[in-house]
């Protein structure tokens, strides 16, 4: 048989195969489907990437992005840089210092970049030697009880556990700490020593900044000597050129859709409208104020008891934890800046990093209005640092104002004296400076770049989750004071909280963003362990939670150990906070003893430290003979130090030890978490 084309076909063929089989059709469908999704996914990604200048970079990146972005070495090499400045920062100061160093590097022909160790593969430090005349600088804060900051934790652990060969790495370290705390600059000192142990070369001796004195002076003095050491080490000279290059450029966002504009959110756009668990520093919970009542009975001061409603939030806290409160600046101060600079505060703008390699695209959530930036994102009430004085010089049209700013920006003895007196002693903020130097009219976008970020405020939680699982209590004194220039400065957070009074009607209740910060300030694991609590004033706050928790255990039928509280205030009839509660705990046996010191109810002032000395036998009986725990909460500058000295003295006398033995005993108590402090300066 032949077909029409003359091709011979075997007659033995039973069936004829179709040109396209079922398998072919299936494969074709799969290919088309894959191509369809690939095309439209790519199109979607392309569309979203066009909007990136108007969004904050996400906190969590894909694995591919993390791999490429974490290599700071690749960034240094690809952009011809030799200087990298890492920061370990909890409040933003270390990050600010790092930025200033990186910027100044240009004066020494060292192009610099700022890097967050949390976003970097710090093992790449071993490759720094491959970059000619390279230098790594570390601006590191010590936080809490001698802990690294959150963003430096991984780097700290890498140094502790690793044994990398860092020969060829040149480095310098500046620490940020506070001498009123026992573990002064402990993390910076460790990093400085550990880098040397691993073979790195210290280009300049460590600098230790003391925030209890003047950390700005400490930093500027160290920085000047740092560059002298750098010039000597690398055989280079200062170019003499002042680097006033802006880190961020202004982007007009007047055409951006309203739904793409930030209105006070910390990180994620519309995060307060669409709350998502878990809640943390970048994703706070918008809590309702359930209770806000006055604790003082009389007098011209105010102390507030505030309860945050966390019902339904899935947030959990432990007794002794802290709660972070996100404040906002007063509209009066914000409006004043707009008035002084003749600026449209409702204009929408964005600040975009001029360094395309930087992982930090914006200094704060952008785009937003100037009003939003000044209200929620920028610190306009603290004393500006000297580098801001320097940046304001070019905006002064009056020679006298210009000379004053130049003087304060300098590191001369005269300049330092003027800065101390005019800024620090007189307690001027940026609003006061603009008022008192009327010819200084900075561009508002540049001012927004210069001002530090507004930080959240931390409060010791004054409740127990056993008793109040659906609310968090705090105890806060309203901060208001008159400065030497007769201005009234107001605490940003406490004055905001004072206005948030819940109502009994159908109106929406006031809200404020919060999150919980874990603490090491904990009750003993066993409820039978005796404890002594020393907490004058609002230092009582965490102990209110401790007492509630022990009272809860007692009511459940569990045995509880002795609880001794030392509390002090000015006058019994004025500021004895939570008096009725404490007396009730004494009456029901939860609180074994309540020692009270009212400093101004008698001719001679009496403080809790006086009572401690008088009760040396009781003190030694609990911490020495019964291995109890001792807790201190309050002022670190004087009270906590005095308590520590008294404890050492009592251990010496009652424990029959030498001074050295007593110090070691107290040190061991601290290591065993039997002596804990939650203090502030």
UniProtKB/TrEMBL annotation:
Q: Which residues bind FAD?
A: 457-460, 475-477, 481, 491-494, 680
* Residues that hold NADP(+) according to the record: 301, 538, 599-600, 605-609, 642
User: What's the domain of life for this entry?
Assistant: Eukaryota
Q: Which reaction does it catalyse?
A: 2 oxidized [cytochrome P450] + NADPH = 2 reduced [cytochrome P450] + NADP(+) + H(+)
Describe its membrane topology: Single-pass membrane protein
Record EC number? 1.6.2.4
Q: Member of which family?
A: In the C-terminal section; belongs to the flavoprotein pyridine nucleotide cytochrome reductase family. Belongs to the NADPH--cytochrome P450 reductase family.
Q: What is this protein called in UniProt? A: NADPH--cytochrome P450 reductase
Q: What is the lineage of its organism?
A: Eukaryota, Metazoa, Ecdysozoa, Arthropoda, Hexapoda
